[in-house]
Amino acid sequence: MTLFTMITGLLLMLLGGIGYYIFQIFSVLIPFVFGFIILLGGIFSRNEKNKRTAIHITVVFVLLGLIGSRSGIVHFPGLLSCAEIATCDVAPRPMAELFKAFMFMILFPHFVASIRFFIKARMSK
């Protein structure tokens, strides 16, 4: 779970960093911030003493990220049907919605794995 958490954080940081570098839009840095927090959670969870607390705090941020990015996944099919995403009229801010969709797609597997991890930990007690 620790490695998966750190990979998720790095992917989000990569998404935000590359997005800002290419498009120069500050709102695409939001995945970078969430990724940094999730990466820190993964790093802190490497210590067995802090593991439980760090993973729980990380899952809270994953859930907040999922809630915040859920509108992007709704607009994603419409964005894919546009010839040029930047000028697409499916969503009010198409680039922001695209990055929200990518953020959702990165966070959702981590959320599912976290729930499975918590269930497995609870069953082993």
Structural summary, described in words:
This protein is mostly helical. The chain has one domain. It contains four helices and no strands. Helix 1 packs antiparallel against helix 2. The radius of gyration is 16 Å and the shape is elongated. The model has no long low-confidence stretch (mean pLDDT 87).
Question: Which stretches are poorly predicted, pLDDT < 50 over at least 5 residues?
Answer: none
Give me the Rg, rounded. Answer: 16 Å
Question: What is the H-and-E element order?
Answer: HHHH
SS class: mainly alpha
Mean pLDDT: 87
Number of strands: 0
Content of β-strand: under 5%
How many discrete structural domains? 1
Helix content: over 70%
User: How can the largest sheet be summarized?
Assistant: none
Concise synopsis of the structure shown:
This protein is mainly α and 125 residues long. Helices cover 78% and strands 0% of the residues.
Label this structure with key terms.
125 residues, mainly alpha, 78% helix, 0% strand
Q: Can you lay out the helices and strands and say which pair or pack?
A:
Elements: H1 2-23, H2 30-44, H3 51-80, H4 94-123
